[in-house]
Write a structure and sequence with these properties.
With 285 residues, this protein is mainly alpha-helical. 76% of the residues lie in helices and 0% in strands.
């Protein structure tokens, strides 16, 4: 019964008139708000339309600082996610130790959690009133550094939270790729005198490269647009593009500036996506 209904829906979509309802819904919920945002981005303070306000926002020091912080955090977190995800995948797939399967499932459970929950957990551990500072005070007899100099409330705290949350996005595709790897290739490489590191570099890494590229590109897009982690951790000295949009829209009620920053954020995300598609296409040739 359900299968027949699905087939009927697919047949209706194949007709030209069948696309009218999906296009209408998509236009209302996506394209119309996007068009309003573009209109706001090119609105001058006097109420007219032009490039003046948009150019002023892009040239501002706050925007340049936020763009640099966004790219820096995204590239650093993605690089570490790729390294940690690949290492964990190789460890789980090729090293026999008790609890390997449980470790893989434990890492996978992070995919079910919202990102802000990881940030909240790290705050409970390493925050000013967290477990680790309390233990430090009990052992050393002195309170740890103040909030402003604590690593959790700076660049490396954000990177730690993002690596903790996004590593499974790299590890899972790599594990799937390693499942298809013929173990005979590993045995042949070893019999020809390759060291374990050489087998890893010449056999395992090329087989996992497409999945590493896919997972790493996904991580880069997600970290570039990450908002919840930074907001929940209360990091005040690290302003990324999403945080700048939030500040302009919610705190300053400057919707034209927030829309201008949002357009630039979209441009960065789309540029990264098309760069990934281009690199994947070259890799498949």
């Amino acid at each position: 019964m359900a299968t027949a209904w699905i087939r009927e829906v697919l047949r209706s979509l194949q007709r030209p008139s069948g696309f009218a309802v999906p296009v209408l819904i998509l236009g209302i919920v996506f394209f119309y708000p996007l068009a309003l945002m573009f209109a706001q981005a090119f609105t001058d303070p006097g109420g007219g339309h032009g490039l003046g306000g948009f150019v002023d926002v892009v040239r501002s020091g706050a925007f340049r600082s936020a763009l640099f912080a966004t790219v820096r955090i995204g590239v650093t977190a993605t690089s570490l996610c790729i390294a940690v995800g690949f290492a964990l995948a190789v460890l789980i797939r090729f090293v026999s130790f008790p609890g390997a399967r449980a470790l893989g499932r434990l890492v996978d459970t992070y995919l079910a959690f919202p990102s802000f929950l990881i940030a909240l957990s790290l705050t409970f551990l390493y925050g000013n009133a967290g477990v680790v500072p309390a233990l430090w005070t009990a052992v050393v007899g002195a309170a740890p550094a103040a909030t402003g100099s604590s690593f959790l409330y700076g660049f490396w705290g954000v990177v730690l939270a993002e690596v903790t949350y996004y590593t499974p996005f790299v590890m899972r595709p790599v594990l799937a790729a390693l499942d298809t790897l013929d173990h005979a290739q590993l045995e042949v490489a070893s019999s020809l005198g390759e060291s374990p590191l050489g087998v890893l570099r010449r056999v395992v890494l090329p087989a996992a490269l497409p999945s590493l590229l896919a997972g790493g590109s996904l991580c880069l897009l997600l970290t570039i647009n990450e908002f919840g982690i930074i907001l929940v951790m209360g990091v005040k000295n690290v302003i990324t593009l999403p945080m700048l949009i939030y500040g302009k829209a919610i705190n300053e009620f400057d919707y034209p500036a927030a829309s201008a920053v949002a357009i630039c954020n979209i441009a960065v995300s789309l540029s990264l996506y098309f760069a990934y598609r281009s690199a994947l296409g070259r890799l498949r040739q």
